[in-house]
TrEMBL record:
Limits of the Heparinase II/III-like C-terminal domain: 362-603
GO molecular-function term, one example from the UniProt record: lyase activity
Primary localization class, coarse: periplasm
Residue ranges constituting the Heparin-sulfate lyase N-terminal domain according to the UniProt record: 78-334
Record keyword Nucleus present: no
Keywords: Lyase, Periplasm, Signal
UniProt subcellular location: Periplasm
Pfam families hit by this protein: Hepar_II_III_C, Hepar_II_III_N
Protein name: Uncharacterized protein
Gene Ontology, cellular component aspect: periplasmic space
InterPro entries: Chondroitin_lyas, Hepar_II_III_C, Hepar_II_III_N
Compositionally biased intervals (Basic and acidic residues): 480-492
Ranges for region Disordered: 468-514, 540-567
Amino acid sequence: MLRRPEDWSVASHTIYNMKPVQLAGIVERRLRHAVVPRLPIDFDERYDRRVPDDLSISPGPIRANLDRLRESLSETERADYRAAADEAADGRYTFLDHTIDFGDRIDWDREAIDERPIFWRLKLASFEGFEWLALGHGSPSGLDDRRSRLEAQAFDFDASNPIGEAAYLRRSWTPHSVSLRILAWSRYVAWCAGDEGAEVPDRLIRMIYRNALFLANHVEHEIGGNHLIENAAALIAAGVLFRDHDTGWVRAGRKLLKRAGNRQFLADGGHFERSPMYHATVLRRYATATDLLSAVGRPTTAVGTVAEHAMGFLSSLVEPSGEIPLLNDSVHGEAIRAATCLAYCRACSLTPAIRSRHHPAGSGYRTLSTGDGTLLFDVGDVGPPHLPAHSHNDQLGVLLWVDGRQVLADTGVYDYGANARRQYARSVAAHNTAQYDGIEPIPTAGSYMLGKRTNVAVEADEHDRIAASHARDSFAGPSYEHRRSVATRGEESGAAPKSASDSAPGAETAPGWRIIDRVTGDPDATYTVRYHFHPSVDVHGAPVAPHDAAPDADPDPESELRSGTEGFAIRADGDRIASLRFPGTERVRLTESPYFPEYGQERLRPMIAVTKPTGEEVRTLLTVDSDAG
């Protein structure tokens, strides 16, 4: 990870920004890995002794919450869960778009597992198949075969993965995976307990209790972020399930959620990692916690208020399709769908509370709408300095929807491995913004590290125009400043073209946006403005160059240059929905770029790039076609 000397500075900045609890947690984990496996102690047996012999459960609140979640799903989603549960029961697991067929028994030492990123193993150890089965079916009746096979997998896991094995906190006993399997197993047990004909396996109940004991001793304070919220929700679920026992888990989980609500959510209700995918994930956990706390008579105001503000933020960000925009580390198909998440929150008696997205301490996502189009302009800083894991170099990026269809899209994320795709997904070149002289505004390294930060300054924030800048000031490397202004234009926006060079037939009346970029730095340097389109649209007006296998490679420029004044037509399903021009620019490159809509999936989509000397403007005119919609 740190073989290149240029990565050492990134690592030092990452460590410098970390909080003492994070550094202490890393040291503690390394010590545990070095010492615990060598001790002549059976930690499994120690945890077993702490499980009460007269263990009893109270499944009612969790069963009622499960029903609310299931009823919030569409029939298509329930069918998808049924199919995924069937695959899991058959021993076939697909994560990161890679399938391993284990057959009758999961071999936890199988080499194919370790050939995938560590995230694959952590997903496998989460046992989400139990939750998939309970979400796909309203009753366990008639599912004895699938249930017995899933239960056999869990029991084999329990016997094959002892607490204290080598690297246990980064393998089967990663607290994040522990949290997810507590939630999955608890819902499954409550689902079975609600049916007179379904026997609840005592061994699985004891396993939930033992996992909760372990989690209570290994809360991920050193990681924080969404992991801490998953830990808290799991502790509350286990505490509610075993509420006849004096565990203290409900109290501990509620305390964690209150603290996270104060520290992890921004003034506009957005989660501070600025990933819509993780925002939906943590909102779902807050809704679950609120519902369960209410069911057992515990106070819900602090937790519920955070959930309602987070609902308001998500409802203002969700796409017309009900999905999330792929800002920062986000993909489709991992977290609960945004529309489903909001329906589930409402089923838990939560109401969205909209907070201003123009607050300077908010996420920085602004929207400018005109005609049938909406443009999102990111004028916020990247994620929290002490938690850079899911942040991208997307400063001053834009996204665009026309008539409910996405036109300009972010890149998503392929996986979390320390590889070329990971570096590309986080790079400035993967986003709809400007890049100075081929460098990164914030250097990246490994899977999650970020170097010295830049800051975004909002200079104008009006209903029809937003302007902002960010600067890179470096002693050892290049320094520069990028300024971007976005304004609506045309009859419906009330804004007239800025100059005669903007004019084209119909430009005075057609709704759209004017984007003006200027980068200043070394007078001999250049900068490039890129626009990445969604794969569902076509961009016409110049031949598309062959795609190079390397994500950051430049194709042959001679095959793809054209005049920016002639414009590009953007079409969807054969219909023209928008156009794009670059007045005053003679050479524009149309090529392709990678798009990662789901973990492990790569598609190609059109990309336009304009390169100019520093100090000169790149003017972009986006117009909604008159017959769009």
